[in-house]
Design brief:
elongated, Zincin-like, alpha/beta, 50% helix, 3-stranded antiparallel sheet, 2 domains
Length: 214
Amino acid sequence: MKKYLLGLTLVFMLMVSPAMATTIVIDKNLYSTGYNVETINKDGRIYVPVRFVSEKLGFTVDWQNGQVIIKYIPHPPEIKGDDSFKARIRAALDLLAQKDQLDYRMICENVSWIETGEVAPGMEGYNSVAQTAGNCAIVINEKYLSDPSCTTADLAGTLVHEATHDAYYMLKLYDRKEQEKQAYIRQMAALELLGVDQDYINKIDQTYNKVMSQ
């Protein structure tokens, strides 16, 4: 009898809450993608599958002890280049993941890929260049990478600096001077967390003061 009543209840729910195909637009970092997903319309509300939406936003969904557990798993950006370049970038990202998770997450959320290349025209005075005009990328200057004094921690700080620019572009905040200010502040804070020599941080601070005075 209980099974029969349960069956009636389920049929009733399906009658008043028909499943239908709905286009769900997921906006992640200002990039929208539409998906045709089965949803349920009940009492004027659209119910969507939590696993599908969560995973598209970078979360994992699990069922444990009667609870739905949703966890955020950072997805590092794609690294384009030869094996040596990939190894150096991965080492820098791993260092951030271990000692500076906040900045590591910022990079994962705002940077789609990292590659190496030549400095863009007009930017020769900088150690690295971020191509942030809508493509969420970081381009690392080849000369910077070939400098023997460039350590993994230094490179990690550079990634934080350039990812800050990407984050500002994603928020449509285009004030270049404010971007530089925040990028240098976050870079120096990251370098301190990573235990970089103070003399190097002081050099970054001098560059920051120079840029702010222009």
